[in-house]
Amino acid sequence: MISIASRLELFVDNFLIDRMNGTVLKLHQPKPAEIAIKYDKYWEGYPDNPISFYTTVIKDGGIYRIYYRGGYKLQHVNCYAESHDGIVWSKPDLGLVELDGSSSNNVILSTPGQFFHSGRLCPFVDESPKASDGERYKSSMLGVSPPAKAGCDKRLVGLYGYVSQDGVNWNQLREDMIVPAELKNHFDSQSAMFWSQAEDQYVLYARHMEEGRRSTARSTSKDFINWTSPTLMRYSDTGTTVPAEQMYTNQTHPYFRAPHIYISLQARILFADVSQVSLKDDVDKAVSHFVTDEQRSFYESNVFEQSGGLGDLSDGVLLTSRAGSDTYDFTFRESFVRPGIGQGNWTTRTNYPSLGVVQTGPEEMSLYVQRDFGQKSSHLERMTLRLDGFASLNAPYDGGDMTTVPFIFDGDMLVLNYSTSAIGSIRVEIQDINGEIVPGYSLNECRGLIGDEINGIMTWDKGNSVRGLSGTPVRLKFHMKDSDIYSLCFRDIRS
Fold first, then answer.
1. Is it the case that residue 199 has pLDDT exceeding 60?
2. Fewer CB within 10 Å, N- or C-terminus of the chain?
3. Do 236 and 329 meet the contact criterion of CB atoms below 8 Å apart?
């Protein structure tokens, strides 16, 4: 029996759904807002080597922080920007790292030579009750050990631990790496780490190569130092550990309003360069991909030559997982972040979503997307969605219904994040575990909802209280017309 207690549940998967009749799960694309950051400093690679990339966004109380890779003389550095609203960003003059005789920059870390892919700092705020004040922020960094540490002539690739008290001044946690690579191509992109409140442990999602496809593996730790052997993530659309397409970054993190649900805004890439792929399907796509004269001319005139292959294309897709699961739910195969108008975003390794989604208004959340990669116009764009608005349970004009699986809840009221048209509506019938109507909660007694609210309270003739059913298995049957439900929860009157 499922127990959702008072947790917020999103309609990003089929977790609560038993039967749908005329209703569907609908993906919603974010809306472009404004440029958050222009990569226009020489330590960001501007203008000759614009390779700023791999961004992480966190909201820390009243401060928003962005961490991203810079490009200084073909070397990677870690850069920092901050904001008080998630909209207007500044690059503070930190004075921490000297470049070309000056420390007047926003570089927070320039790692030694062993960190051959520095610039992949992916910080998180450690909310573990055991975390010390001096290590409130944690991150990993991709590097190699000296041959002697590997016990052989080869260097060992892996992740080193980094900690910070303030999110700006960082120190290496220990001399040895904390997570050695165990899989092919392990860690070759951003490695998403976080403290999971739902799992009571640290969780890591990292790149690996599975049967010729870029995919993801998961590892966990109780202390941030000792990690389990990686478990390969499975994909719901294929039923295997091999995704249907190349997934470059995984960007997996707990959703801030429902931390038991992990949002994964992955970068999906179509390679035109056959040297980058091996599976027949990918080779066939690369060979058959048609590059127009216009695209070729734009690429040759505007894209830095080391950015990647001509004809490579990428977009962002939405996958989800749940705490403790080794499966990505790939309910929506269509693009979540499309390239959009303009040749600048139809080039290699652009349109990659950042790691992190943050609230930027009472009804708004924001994500940040890499645009114009490898070009002088390279920048980070803010995009917006309504709270919980990744996807919805949707009904058309002609209406439809959805019946949930049986579950147990805890709370006084049923609260919906919903939207209807002027002629649309949402009504709810409460049933017992056998599908029989609970007296007082029939469809005819439901007053329904019309409008557009983040916290809409469902009411019946007897009122809005459902406390008498708390702890008892129930089903909900939603009757909908021209409407969307983004999330639901049961809430106490006092909350």
1. yes
2. N
3. yes
